[in-house]
C-alpha cells in the first residue's frame, strides 16, 4: 500500500476524527477554566491574602537595567505566581474530567445492569404455537 493511501485510511478512521474533536473541545474547555481561575477564583484569593495579584508574584534574579548603549535589558524573574495559577487550572480540569468519566461509568453500569427483555412473539409465532398446541392435544 502506498504511503498516501495508507495515510488516507488512517486520516478518515473514526478514532482520528474523534480525537481531533476532543482536542478542539479540550482547548476551548481549557480557555474556559483559565478564565474561571484568572477572573473568578484568583481575585478573591488574592484579596484574602492582602490584595496580591498572583501574576505579580515572582522572584527577581536580576533587575532590569540599561546597558552602556542605552538599551533596556529586561529583568530575569521566576514567575511562581503564574505557576500557582497553572496548577489551579490543572486541578480544576482534572477534577471536572474525573467527574465526567465517573458519571459516564455509572451510566454504563446502569445500562449493563438492566435485564434484557425478550421481544414479544410475532403474530406468526403465536399462530404457530397455537397450531403446535392443537396438534399435541390430538
From TrEMBL:
SUPFAM superfamilies: Gated mechanosensitive channel. InterPro entries: Mechanosensitive_channel_CS, MS_channel, MSC/AndL, MscL_channel. One of its GO terms (cellular component) is plasma membrane. Its main location: membrane. Keywords: Cell membrane, Ion channel, Ion transport, Membrane, Transmembrane, Transmembrane helix, Transport. It is found in: Cell membrane. It is a multi-pass membrane protein. Pfam families: MscL. Coiled coil: none annotated. The chain crosses the membrane at residues 12-33, 83-101. It comes from the Bacteria. Channel that opens in response to stretch forces in the membrane lipid bilayer. May participate in the regulation of osmotic pressure changes within the cell. Belongs to the MscL family. Homopentamer. This is Large-conductance mechanosensitive channel.
Amino acid at each position: 500500500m502506498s504511503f498516501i493511501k495508507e495515510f488516507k485510511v488512517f486520516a478518515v478512521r473514526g478514532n482520528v476524527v474523534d480525537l481531533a474533536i476532543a482536542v478542539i473541545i479540550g482547548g476551548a474547555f481549557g480557555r474556559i477554566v483559565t478564565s474561571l481561575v484568572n477572573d473568578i477564583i484568583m481575585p478573591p484569593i488574592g484579596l484574602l491574602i492582602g490584595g496580591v495579584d498572583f501574576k505579580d508574584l515572582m522572584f527577581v534574579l536580576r533587575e532590569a537595567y540599561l546597558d552602556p548603549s542605552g538599551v533596556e535589558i529586561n529583568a530575569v524573574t521566576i514567575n511562581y505566581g503564574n505557576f500557582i495559577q497553572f496548577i489551579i487550572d490543572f486541578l480544576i480540569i482534572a477534577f471536572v474530567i474525573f467527574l465526567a468519566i465517573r458519571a459516564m461509568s455509572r451510566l454504563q453500569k446502569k445500562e449493563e445492569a438492566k435485564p434484557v427483555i425478550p421481544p414479544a412473539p410475532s403474530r406468526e409465532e403465536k399462530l404457530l404455537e397455537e397450531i403446535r398446541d392443537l396438534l399435541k392435544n390430538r
